[in-house]
Amino acid sequence: MNLSIRPMDLEDIPQASEIELEAFPPPWPATNFMRELAINSLTFYLVAYEELCDDEKPVPELRDTNCDTRSSESRLTALRSLFRRLFGGGTDGVAPRQLLLGFAGLWFMADEAHLANIAVREAYRQRGVGEQLLISAIKLAMEHNASIITLEVRASNRAARALYKKYGFAEVGTRPAYYTDNKEDAVLMTADGITSASFTDNFLMLCQAHPSKLGDDL
Ligand SMILES: CC(C)(COP(=O)(O)OP(=O)(O)OC[C@H]1O[C@@H](n2cnc3c(N)ncnc32)[C@H](O)[C@@H]1OP(=O)(O)O)[C@@H](O)C(=O)NCCC(=O)NCCS
After folding, report:
1. CATH topology of domain 4-209
2. Residue 8 near residue 47 (C-beta atoms within 8 A)
3. Core-most of 12, 127, 176, 208, by most CB within 10 Å?
């Protein structure tokens, strides 16, 4: 996989929305990527992508998810048409040259970076994409002089909890019944002292061990 990371652009919104629908189906509210990218200066989104060859199918079909596909698809159609109205051209019939594999969003507040979300296209999971996004998000937090990264994760989300633990996040508490769809608890996780020698030494070791060989384009 020829994986690269870069900041999210407005053109990425339809693909990012597809990935989000797969990862966080309704009733989880859709992220307003447009507002996050265009207005919210405290937010930063990264995307993982690979270049498509000319003869490759632009974007995979929405796969069967647990969500209400009709409302999901109509949300996506509405988003695409809004996108066309705002920016002309469009995404329907115009093949994107890059396939988005995942994204991660960070909010910055004083010395805290909050990992708002991270998601990988289902067909590309367990291939190191989520880990690379987390590495890039941590680097970004370091560059913004954050000293702590915080996040919430569903108690049942074993994959995400394992990913965060691998990168030194500690489970520091719970928010009972935080997720309104099923009243599931959120586990609060933090990576403290991300500029400390102990954190950075471990982080560099993990980065070097990560199999994806990426250009450091952040
Ligand atoms: C969580 C998520 C982003 C991980 O992305 P990914 O690309 O599949 O993860 P990676 O292949 O980079 O795996 C990195 C680490 O995550 C953990 N991990 C990933 N998938 C796992 C699974 N199915 N079971 C257990 N641990 C898993 C492991 O620690 C793994 O490290 P290892 O390979 O050394 O064991 C992905 O599963 C996803 O998009 N899930 C849906 C959205 C979501 O839940 N986001 C988190 C919200 S808080």
Report:
1. Aminopeptidase (3.40.630)
2. yes
3. 12
